[in-house]
Amino acid sequence: MSFDIKAMSTIHRGGRLATGVDGVKSRHAYWSNDLMNSIIASGYFNDAADYLKKGDLIEVAADIDGTPATNILVVTSASGATPVTTQGLATVTQTFVGEKFMELSIPVTDGTYQLLAFPKAGTLAEIKTLLDGAITTNDAVLTFKKNGVAITNGVVTIANSGSAAGDLDTATPTAGNDFAAGDKLTVTVSGTPGGTKNAKTSLLINA
User: Fold this and answer.
1) CA-CA distance, 103 to 126, in Å (whole number)?
2) pTM of model > 0.70
3) 177 lies in which domain range?
4) How far apart are CA 70 and CA 40, in angstroms?
5) Pseudo-torsion of CA 108, 140, 205, 176, nearest 10°?
6) Which residue, 88, 110, 137, sits at the end of a domain?
7) Could you tell me if 41 and 97 lie in one domain?
8) What are the angstrom distances between the C-alpha of 59 and each of 8, 25, 40?
9) What is the CATH number of the domain that holds 99?
């Protein structure tokens, strides 16, 4: 399938960062049966380029006729330019189960993503990532951080060579992984991996 402009609406307009029309940012909503990876891919929103501006937000509900998923995308390409490019935010798909385990979906694209503010104290004991498709350029390096500080042995490297959906990688943090209530967990993805894929990430948290 492809982008359907009839399924997109502007739900808020008026976030002003600068003077002029281009300084006003908007929030849009979009519903589709397409998979999230297809929607995030470069050029998907080309037919909407005339009214999408860099910095606009698009709230997406994807794969509605299959396994619905949601994400918030930010437009990263120049206003009115093609191809339209977007960046998805890291999204939580499952919360604490018995204060032990949670799952996240992390874009395998360079950037820093806010994952979690710990509701209670806990120790991040293990990180596992499951790739949903091949990356195309370089190894992806995922550095997990507590309040902005890298966690010792909290780095997952996803190899580019031979990468494919289902690749599993693991990190076992050894220090800097004890979180108090309110501490923040983030991840920085680096290496310019290419491919616009996601890593389904499982966190083992000991209370």
Assistant:
1) 12
2) no
3) 91-206
4) 11
5) -130
6) 88
7) no
8) 10, 14, 11
9) 2.60.120.340
* Angle, vertex CA 205, rays to CA 199 and CA 207, nearest 5: 165
pLDDT in tens, the chain (207 residues): 689 999 999 988 766 555 555 667 889 999 999 998 889 888 999 999 888 888 889 999 998 998 888 888 999 887 778 888 888 766 554 444 455 778 888 999 999 998 988 888 889 999 999 998 899 999 999 999 999 999 999 999 999 999 999 999 999 999 999 999 999 999 999 999 988 889 999 999 987
CA distance 151 to 174: 8
In angstroms, the CA 24 to CA 180 distance is: 39
Q: 157: number of CA atoms within 13 Å, CB side?
A: 7
Residues 195, 129: one domain?
yes
